[in-house]
Amino acid sequence: MAGCYDRDTRPEAAWLWEALAHWTAEHGDPDTGCQPLNGTVGKWVGGGASAMTAWRKGQLWNLEWFAIVRARVGCDPDTCDSPYADEDELSRKLERADQEEKAHRRSALAPSRLPAPRTGTLNTRLTGMPARPARTAAPCVPSDEDEIRVALRKVDLADRRTVRAWEAVVPLLDDPGRAGVHLRDVYVTRKAQKVLVKGLRNQLVNRGSQGSAVLGEPGTGKSCVLWGVREELREAGWTVVAVSAAALLDAPDHPADLKFRELVAALEAKQSAVRAQQGSGRVALLLDTADLLLHDDTDEGRDRLVALIRRARALGVAVAIACRSVEARRLEEREPAGIEALLIKEHLEGYDDGRTAASAVQHVGAPWEPDSELDRAVEAHLRVFCRDPGLPGPREGGGHHGRGPAEPLVQRMRSTLVYAAARGLPLGQLIRHPLSLRMLFDVYAPAGPRDRDLDVTDLFREYWAARVTEDIRHAVFGDEPTDEEAGWNLSEEVRVLGLAMLREGKPELRRADAVTALVAHTALRRRRAERAVSVLLRRGVLRKVEGGRIAFHHQAFAEHAAGQALRFAKRGLVVTADRVTDHPDDLLLAEAARHAFHIADREGVAGWYSALDKLMRHDHAATRLTALRIHAGLRHPPEDAVRTAVETLRNADPWQTTSYMTVLTGTSNPAPAAWPRTLRAIWEREDRQDRRRVLIAVTHLAYQQPDEVATFLSALRLLGFEERELLDCLPLGRDLTLLLLGFHTAAPEKCASALTKLLNAAVAFRNKPVLLHTLAALSHLAAEDPTRYGKHIAKLPELLDGLQEKAWRASLDKLLPAAAAAWAAGLRTATVPEIEETVGRLVEDLSAGSPGPSAALRLRALAEVLATRPSRPVQRFLKLLADAAGSPESAEHIAKYLLAPLLSQESARPGVAAARDWCRRHLRPTETMDVEQGTTGVIAKALDRDKVPLPAETIAACLWQPRDPDRLSDSSLRRWLSDPWPHSLTVAAAAGRHPVAERALALHVTTAPPATDGYAVRLREALGRRAADQPDRLLGPLHEDAVRSGDLTGLKRLALLGPEMLTGVLEDPGHRETLIAIGKSLQESPAGLKTIGLRLEMLAATQGGLLPVTVDETLAWLRATRNGEIQKTVLMGIGEQLHRQAVLWREQDPLARLEPVLRAVEERGGEAKETAGPPYDHHGRQFMLAANEAYLLRIALHAHFDDIESRPVAEILAPLEALVFADLPVYLPEGDGGIALPAWRRRFQHLPHLCCRLAAAGHGDAARALLDRVLDFTNGVHPSGKGNWRERLADDWRFYLRVVSLEDRERLTDTILGFARKDIFFARQLVEVAAQGLGDISPELYALMRDEATPAALMPALRSTASWAGRAGHGGQWTEVFAEVA
Fold first, then answer.
1. Residue ranges making up the domain that contains 36
2. Which DSSP symbol is given to 1176?
3. What pLDDT sits at residue 629?
4. Does any domain span residue 1000?
5. Phi, psi (5° rounding) for residue 544?
6. Among candidate residues 950, 985, 1015, the one where a domain is terminated
7. Which backbone phi and psi does 324 adopt, to 5 degrees?
8. Is 822 domain-assigned?
9. Distance in angstroms (rounded) separating the CA atoms of residues 1054 and 1069
10. For 957-966, 1093-1102, 1244-1253, which range has the lowest pLDDT when averaged over its residues?
């Protein structure tokens, strides 16, 4: 078999067959250990035995089969020394062999070019080959089909490599399939995944050029999110191409594994194939690590990335990329309109702990919210990493063990994490970071860390000890290394690799360069150096990257490795300080320096202060930021270092103080002699946000250093809460709870008295947020010390009854759940007789008269307590309370605060199940039922909540259901369709699949003649309201009922809902058709419904604004009616579309075709204004509003579609300027709300697009003159310069201001000052976009801060921007690093 090709004429193909012989003969079938049969190989590749015979004889040509066989037999560089084990080499051989095959076929078609025949091999192959179809391309040129086939193969190979890299969470020594930790085992669905999937689906509808992007810092899980997106899309039938940007990197000594044109060709081929099969192309490109293309000093990588996104979107391929946030700023320079014109961004941070949910206040003080991202991630890691050795793994037949196994090891690990997270310790913050959580389990599982007080530096050092110093495996049982390599101490080697990456300026190396660096800077010989790299790959410290490159398993650890090297080098810290001062914008170097100083501090190394002092006193803000981040993580700083840090923080920028406190709160036991002084320096700046961050930082320190925290808070006199300003500085939500819990730990007596003063101050100063979150904290304080805080809870009814002022009434419903949680804390351990006594007192209060807030508090707390109680007492208590509901007010109170909250909880709880059963037994549709009071009134009001309705399934589960619903007569069903039965319950129960309600609703729809009484009208309105939530079950009956009855009440109710409430309806094609039909029905109705009908039709036709309206559709809608309100609606929608997607109208000649119609609308509006006179009737005013919209749309059309190349620019701009700068008002009467200050900016909303077009065409002066005239005009109509509308106006011009900032850097300071004199908001925007586009503009910023002409209002923007401007995500090459640090 290995001799089917001659090595002289077909060397690449011969190499492939030799490789195949090696794989099948020397490795063999992994199941049997023997050389596989043809039939076995056929099963591997999806062919038959005869095809394998022909392939082995050289009669078939399929390059993909080689890669499949290699992967199946497990030939890998770590276990096989043959040249056939390298996957990258195989990829190159496959490409070259394919070129050989093409050349061979061309030779076969042109005999005169054939070489002299050789003996046997070539002639035998030619005569044995099957006949090939004739080719249309010239014999000397490869056909397009061949190139596409090669591109497809390369893309598929890149896809497999990318996905394999994503899925390998923990690399193993021998058998990844048996014991490996797969990403699927620990992945949890993130919010970013849902956003990206929705964005990709929207891209198929909206044929604009925007893609989607997930941006985040290293280790936040961007690649994992792309993997989750891929899985979800593939399950939905999409074709997904996943590619790492590393495969696209091109270097002089190593060409790219995949060229951009090959990727585009493959995407086009896949799109065509999918469209041919499915009728529509659902293809997505997921590009990982896009920041690698933004690291080069040239713009080539950036331009290629932009071109790739644009080209893929032009093909109709949906695009999503993952990129680091810092590198993404480089796209700002490429796109004049900003990155938003290219990508819709979703920022990814750590795991969400659920604190932003609406119900989060109920769980404040817990470590995380139930079913949050963090909760699911912790449980997944516990399930995989912390099982006992005798239990099967998640993919070894054991499956998932529900929420998590109950082994002691799991409980110990979970309790450690819960303790740390609930108290705000650094470990609790650490686990919110996906990479840190994975490393934590990899190092410490199954028993957990020895110390609950752990920070990121400790974690990296422990990981170093467990993976670098030696190989200690905790992740996978039964996979411990058995050879001597497990004991190799590779610390020196890893430090050398860390320095080598600093030398390259990026966190990756070519594998050959890594080996060379080890040989040059260690005592290893080449063979041993190569083996050391292999061992590090096997341990998971390093990972392979496409193109023969390697990288640390994550960039954060690469920075730590470099920091280790700098700390242990003789002159490492001193040289590092010099390098940082010379390159303050190098973020990679800055992080490595931070690790170096922190390691030196933890290990007690002396003599590093002078280097840190140099950084702290440097004149560049970025350098001082690096110094402050270093200082925040120190545990043993000298006195001089503390004094210098205090001086620096007193004059620091907001960005610097925020970064300092972020590192401080993430540090375990920071220096007790330092942080009280540094935080006091920040507090004395008297900035509200800074003070709030100080208190949050103190919160995290309270459990580590309680005495110091108590002293610090007392010294600042924060515990009396006598000043209103102090309340405004308090942190809210979970942070306030943690602050009070921490203060309780530090000084219980002082905390109790402070809590009393805090509650009184919040009421006195009417600070609702502080009162809300203090009440939420009270329940957790009571759980910690019920004796000390019982008095506070006992006073809650009196406190709430005292909030009877008008200012508090609207907030009571928000305060009650938090206060009820505290009140319930005392009832959770109560016996049944004690609860019955509480119920008895409630019955007396309800019977006495109108219940107040204190009764609502007790009822709401009772709902929390009864949920976990047995069935019989729960139903007895419900009966006692319901019998006391002798008035509608008391029935409403019980329903709102007790029964509805109880029914909304998990149905598995015994008390909840009992309450539902009680409702079913007491509420039936009868002619004599009372829905206002008594038992039936309480149940009906609880189920028929309007503002916060219960889910349809819950309502259906609470209603009576006969044994045989099909046997009910029509007369019985009509009780569900008539008073006194609540109409909304029938609709909601039908949506929840209640069989009787479904039959009743069907009877209502099909009754002839249709019901027209008031009940039927109200039922149709409820049907329209619920149809948006349950379109599959209710939208059809709603439309059918409207057609049969002619009553459009329900359709009107549906059409008035906003686009966000109709999302579920708009995503389904069938539902969209129904909405269009509903919209047309409303338009054909009497006056008053045409506008909402057209709005609904436009919403459905454009799928909520995703699918752009065409010029033809616009003309049809405008000509179909003379109704001013309808025309206004159409014109407003078109104006909004042009602001986002004007490019889609360029080929439709919109200005010439629409201008006559728009002028006609304006003429009608002008006539109405002149002839009607004030006071204007509704129709006259609608004509004027439509004319105003037509006038604004003409401005937009000129701005986007005027041909600025056809004649002198002044002549082109004259008609537009006449429209834009016309005297106010144009078509609206004086004093009309349509010309209020916020609406004026709509005149100028589209002009930034025109200015960008002018600048691109070489008319920059005309663009600037137009902007100056806009500023002069707005200053003339509103000279004070105040108001939010001015700020929003400046935001509209942001992308043109970016063009202004790039035009002439030498005059940037003069330009900023010029804008500041005219409009401070424009000046602020210009400062920010200039920093994004130009990078380090520190000289200009500091010059402006020293200039006396700079307005004081601009100083905060200058200081804030100076903190981050110029920070780069990549570094310059430190070519002499080894020599300088030695």
1. 11-142
2. P
3. 92
4. no
5. -80, 145
6. 950
7. -70, 145
8. no
9. 17
10. 1093-1102
